[in-house]
Amino acid sequence: MAVSLMLAAGQLHVESVTIYPVQQGLIDDASCCSPYAYSNSNSPTFSLTGCFSDPHYGCWNDRERGAWRWDLEDALPDGAVVTSAHIHWNHPTLCDAWSVYLWIDAGTQILSSSYCQQIRSNPDQQYSQQEYYASTFSWSVDQSVMDEALGGGYLSLVNQIGSSGQGCVMHSGGDLGVRIIIEYDLQTCDGDADGDGDADIEDVLAIIKAWGDVGGSQADLNGDLLVDVQDLLQMLEWYEGC
């Protein structure tokens, strides 16, 4: 859900958009602490666990990592300036999370075993040895990483939770799944009654078409919840101003 804050003459809008992954899966091949093989999974929850390897007692549990990819092409409208971006995830219950790692990468590849390994070897951004006790948590994405992802198309994440066989179940898909929330500023044009980004004769016609409308029409330029002659006069003042 996007939230708008209108300032001055309605020209600066602070918006947010929530983006869900187009690909998700697990890195899990029963190789103790160093899983490599990625496979897609549409499971609504992932159970991510740590591992414990000892030369005398062998391996205790196998580590599983999660991976997600978001398509950010056309995610924001023209003229949007990103002010913040966060990766959010939720757990069904409180998670006592230890040894949490995130590897974040902007690029054009889809998730695969080799690409997930590449993300971990050379990420654009990384969180290491984090911990928390909560049912939900969020992580800030660097501005430079978001700029690259928005320009290149994809943002991908590999994560792990847990050590010594301990871990947590987390929501992967659905409304509570791993998601990106982007906040951005959107500069609009005074007098733009038809939403095309400028103030011209088409906006005059849009006001005439909406004449008499009540309840917050886009043609209500002065914000009094009625499209009338006052909006037309306001339009003439702003005509061809942007």
Give an account of the 3D structure.
- The chain is an alpha+beta fold.
- It has two domains: 6-186, Jelly Rolls; 192-238, Orthogonal Bundle (Type 1 dockerin domain).
- The chain has four helices and 13 strands.
- The strands form three sheets. Strands 1, 2, 3, 4, 8, 9, 10, 11 and 13 form a nine-stranded antiparallel beta sheet that branches. A two-stranded antiparallel ribbon has the order 5-12.
- The radius of gyration is 24 Å and the shape is elongated.
- The two termini are 29 Å apart.
- Residues 1-10 have low confidence and may be disordered.
Explain the layout of strands and helices.
Blueprint: E1 6-7, E2 12-19, E3 23-27, E4 38-40, E5 45-49, E6 52-54, E7 58-60, E8 65-71, E9 80-107, H1 113-121, E10 125-140, H2 143-152, E11 154-160, E12 167-171, E13 179-187, H3 201-209, H4 229-238
Helix pairs in contact: 3-4
Describe, in short, the structure shown.
By secondary structure, the protein is an alpha+beta fold. 16% of the residues lie in helices and 42% in strands. The protein has helices at residues 113-121, 143-152, 201-209, 229-238; strands at residues 6-7, 12-19, 23-27, 38-40, 45-49, 52-54, 58-60, 65-71, 80-107, 125-140, 154-160, 167-171, 179-187.
The arrangement of helices and strands along the chain is EEEEEEEEEHEHEEEHH
Average pLDDT level: 88
Low-confidence stretches: 1-10
Question: At the first level of CATH, what is the class of the largest domain?
Answer: Mainly Beta
**Rg of Cα set:** 24 Å
Given the structure, what is the number of helices?
A: 4
**Class derived from helix and strand content:** alpha+beta
Helix content: 10-25%
Net shape? elongated
Main beta-sheet annotation: 9 strands, antiparallel
What proportion strand?
35-45%
CATH topology of the largest domain: Jelly Rolls
Question: Could you say how many structural domains there are in total?
Answer: 2
User: What is the total tally of β strands?
Assistant: 13
CATH architectural arrangement of the largest domain: Sandwich
- Termini separation (Å)? 29 Å
